[in-house]
């Protein structure tokens, strides 16, 4: 039990109030809205935002905090439809290619060359397409819903520009 209390005291001692101005506007100027933040966190700016006295008798407090967050960008991925692949043609392309062109090359160049040739054959015989992966999208927001959203937005733009009820 003593260790538990000691831990809370240490945590509380590591906090500092970042608001130095009073927040109460009335005759008794007091600090009602402190912002206590760990000493480890770099704070570029903190302060008090004065409000109209007809709205409130206290001011608002704010603090800016720098933090890193993951930047989830979109990326593209190639999707292959193996069920519709033409494996007979692929076998013919592989068997009829003159692979001896790889012999005089060093290992790294031969590997890159083989990969390029093989991928060209694969792309010819297996239907494929690029899809855009949006990591921030919700799982339920799929391409079908995205298509309808774009269609809705285009229709709204046309109606806004024309001003016609029919649009």
Query: How is the main sheet built?
Result: 2 strands, antiparallel
Total helices: the number is 4
Report, as a whole number of angstroms, the end-to-end distance.
72 Å
Task: For the largest sheet, list the strands in their spatial order.
Answer: 1-2
Number of domains: 2
Range of helix content:
25-40%
Poorly predicted residue ranges: 1-10
General description of the model:
By secondary structure, this protein is α+β, with helices and mostly antiparallel strands. The protein folds into two domains: 2-64, no CATH class; 80-143, no CATH class. Helix content is 37%, strand content 17%. It has four helices and six strands; from the N terminus they run H-E-E-E-E-E-H-H-E-H. It has helices at 2-13, 87-96, 107-125, 143-162; strands at 15-17, 36-38, 45-49, 60-64, 75-80, 128-133. It has a two-stranded antiparallel sheet with strand order 1-2.
Features:
2 domains, two-stranded antiparallel sheet, 167 residues, disordered N terminus, alpha+beta
Short synopsis of the structure:
The protein has 4 helices and 6 strands, in the order αβββββααβα. The protein has 167 residues and is α+β, with helices and mostly antiparallel strands. It folds into 2 domains: 2-64, no CATH class; 80-143, no CATH class.
List the helices and strands and how they pair.
Layout: H1 2-13, E1 15-17, E2 36-38, E3 45-49, E4 60-64, E5 75-80, H2 87-96, H3 107-125, E6 128-133, H4 143-162
Antiparallel strand pairs: 1-2, 3-4, 5-6
Helix pairs in contact: 2-3
């Amino acid at each position: 039990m003593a260790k538990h209390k000691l831990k809370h005291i240490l945590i509380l001692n590591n906090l500092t109030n970042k608001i130095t101005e009073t927040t109460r506007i009335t005759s008794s100027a007091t600090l009602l809205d402190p912002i206590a933040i760990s000493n480890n966190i770099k704070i570029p700016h903190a302060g008090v935002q004065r409000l109209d006295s007809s709205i409130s008798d206290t001011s608002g407090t704010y603090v800016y905090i720098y933090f890193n967050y993951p930047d989830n960008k979109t990326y593209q991925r190639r999707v292959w439809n193996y069920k519709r692949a033409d494996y007979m043609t692929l076998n013919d392309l592989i068997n009829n290619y003159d692979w001896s062109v790889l012999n005089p090359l060093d290992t790294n160049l031969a590997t890159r060359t083989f990969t390029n040739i093989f991928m060209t054959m694969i792309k010819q015989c297996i239907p494929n397409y690029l899809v855009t992966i949006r990591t921030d999208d919700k799982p339920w927001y799929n391409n079908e819903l995205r298509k309808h959203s774009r269609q809705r937005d285009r229709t709204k733009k046309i109606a806004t520009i024309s001003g016609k009820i029919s649009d």
